Amino acid sequence: MVEYVFTDRAPKPIGPYSQAVIAGNFVFLSGQIPIDPKTGEIVDGGIRDQTRRVLENIKAILEEAGCSLNDVVSVTVFLKDLSHFNDFNEVYSDYFSENRPARSTIQAAALPKNVLVEIAAIAYKK
To answer: Out of the domains of life, which is the source (predicted)?
Structure first.
């Protein structure tokens, strides 16, 4: 059985995809960019502010799916510029301080809406 997840506490999809899909015990989150769900706009600020917004969006989607950040098993991070890695990582560490999922970090030539970061995640729903 497949279930599609949607919450108003995260940005509405800007294309033909779901915020997340639950398949069995896994929750697959689409890549999230730093859109403020209240305004529909990209958040002001640099990599730290954008990373925080993305992780808050992910947290909201996970909660709607019946999970939390502690259930995340894999994360894929796309950074516009790897020179932002240390600043990104400091904010990321605040969200994943105890349970640390597997992670890949990739520098992308371009990201939607010219943002600095996009994050996709997979969680295991117990």
So the answer is: Archaea
CATH architecture of 2-124: 2-Layer Sandwich (3.30)
pLDDT tens-digit series, residues 71-126: 999 999 999 999 999 999 999 999 998 889 999 999 999 999 999 999 999 999 98
Q: Rounded to a whole number, what is the distance in angstroms from the first to the last CA of the chain?
A: 16
Full strand arrangement of the beta sheet holding 102-107: 2-5, 20-23, 26-32, 117-124, 72-79, 102-107
Dihedral sign, Cα of residue 19, residue 97, residue 51, residue 110: negative
- Alpha helices by DSSP H, listed for 31-122, are 47-64, 85-95
Sequence letter at residue 15: G
CA distance 92 to 15: 26
CB atoms within 10 A of CB 58: 25
Map out the domains of the chain as residue ranges. 2-124
DSSP state of 19: S
pLDDT band for position 21 (50/70/90)? Answer: very high
